[in-house]
C-alpha cells in the first residue's frame, strides 16, 4: 500500500516553504506536498474523512457489475466480515460515504470514502466487490454480510494497487509545492524504468 494523503505533525522554527524543502530532502521515496500551522491539540488521526483509491488493472467483470456490487457498500455497514481482528459477538459499524467505480486508462479505478476504516477493510471490500463482479459470490450474500446478518470469509485484495489518496481535516493547506528535488526525480524515474522493464520481462516469460 502507498499513501498520498498521509499527514504528520512536526515541531519546527522553519517557515512552511523552507520546512517542505527540508522534509523532501530526507528520503527520495517520501514526498511532502503541503503544510499548515496547527495548534498543539491537533491530532492527525482525527480526520473528517479518508479516501482510498484502488487500481483494478485486470477487471474480472464489467463496469456495471463492479458498480452494482460497490453500491451495496455505501451507507451504514457491519464490517465484522470485512476487517481483521474484530470481535464477532457484537456489530462493528462504519459509515461509507461513497464507493465509486470509474473507467481508467487501464482497467477500473475504485474509490471509497469514509470517516474511519478498520484494519484491512478496504482490501476486503475490494475483494468482495471483485468476487461479486466475477460471479463467484452472490450479491445478495454480499449485501447480507454487509448488513451483519451473516458472516462471510473474504480474502484480501492485493496491497500494491491501494493508495490512501486523501485525508480531509476540514481546513485548507496554506503552503503547497509540486516541485520534486533532483534526488526524488532520479529515484522515481529509476522506479518507473524498473517497472517497465519488469513488465516486458514478464510478458516475454508468458510467451509460448
Description:
This protein has 208 residues and is α+β, with helices and mostly antiparallel strands. Helices cover 31% and strands 21% of the residues. It has a domain at 45-171: Pseudouridine synthase I, catalytic domain, C-terminal subdomain (Alpha-Beta Plaits), CATH 3.30.70.660. It has helices at 16-23, 63-71, 121-134, 139-146, 182-206; strands spanning 2-3, 34-35, 49-56, 75-78, 93-103, 108-114, 162-168, 175-176. The strands form 2 sheets. The protein has a 6-stranded mixed beta sheet with strand order 1-7-3-6-5-4. The protein has a two-stranded antiparallel ribbon with strand order 2-8. The longest helix has 25 residues, at 182-206. The protein is flat. 21% of the residues are buried. The model has no long low-confidence stretch (mean pLDDT 93).
How would you briefly describe this protein structure?
The chain is an alpha+beta fold and 208 residues long.
Question: What labels describe this entry?
Answer:
single chain; 208 residues; Alpha-Beta Plaits; two-stranded antiparallel ribbon; flat
Flag low-confidence runs.
Answer: none
Rg over CA atoms: 20 Å
What gap, in angstroms, lies between the N and C termini? 33 Å
* Total of helices: 5
> Looking at CATH, which topology of one domain would you report?
Alpha-Beta Plaits
| Mean pLDDT over the full residue set | 93
CATH superfamily of one domain: Pseudouridine synthase I, catalytic domain, C-terminal subdomain
Quickly give the structural class: alpha+beta
| Overall 3D form | flat
Tell me the strand percentage band. Answer: 15-25%
Major β-sheet, in short? Answer: 6 strands, mixed
In CATH terms, what is the architecture of one domain? 2-Layer Sandwich
Helix content: 25-40%
Which CATH class of one domain? Alpha Beta
Strand arrangement, largest sheet? 1-7-3-6-5-4
Amino acid at each position: 500500500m502507498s499513501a498520498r494523503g498521509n499527514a504528520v505533525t512536526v515541531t519546527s522554527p522553519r517557515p512552511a516553504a523552507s520546512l517542505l524543502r527540508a522534509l523532501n530532502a530526507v528520503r527520495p521515496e517520501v514526498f511532502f506536498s503541503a503544510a499548515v500551522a496547527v495548534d498543539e491539540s491537533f491530532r492527525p488521526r482525527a480526520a473528517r474523512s479518508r479516501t482510498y483509491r484502488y487500481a483494478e488493472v485486470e477487471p474480472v467483470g464489467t463496469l456495471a457489475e463492479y458498480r452494482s456490487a460497490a453500491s451495496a457498500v455505501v451507507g451504514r455497514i457491519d464490517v465484522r466480515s470485512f476487517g481483521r481482528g474484530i470481535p464477532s459477538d457484537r456489530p462493528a459499524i462504519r459509515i461509507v460515504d461513497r464507493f465509486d467505480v470509474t473507467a481508467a486508462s487501464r482497467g477500473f479505478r475504485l474509490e471509497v470514502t469514509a470517516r474511519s476504516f478498520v484494519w484491512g477493510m478496504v482490501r476486503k471490500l475490494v475483494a468482495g466487490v471483485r468476487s461479486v463482479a466475477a460471479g463467484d459470490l452472490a450479491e445478495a450474500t454480499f449485501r447480507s454480510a454487509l448488513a451483519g446478518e451473516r458472516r462471510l470469509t473474504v480474502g484480501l485484495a492485493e496491497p500494491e494497487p491501494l493508495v490512501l489518496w486523501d485525508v480531509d481535516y476540514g481546513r485548507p493547506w496554506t503552503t503547497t509545492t509540486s516541485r520534486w528535488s533532483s534526488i526524488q526525480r532520479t529515484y522515481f524515474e529509476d522506479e518507473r524504468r524498473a517497472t517497465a522493464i519488469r513488465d516486458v520481462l514478464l510478458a516475454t516469460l508468458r510467451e509460448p
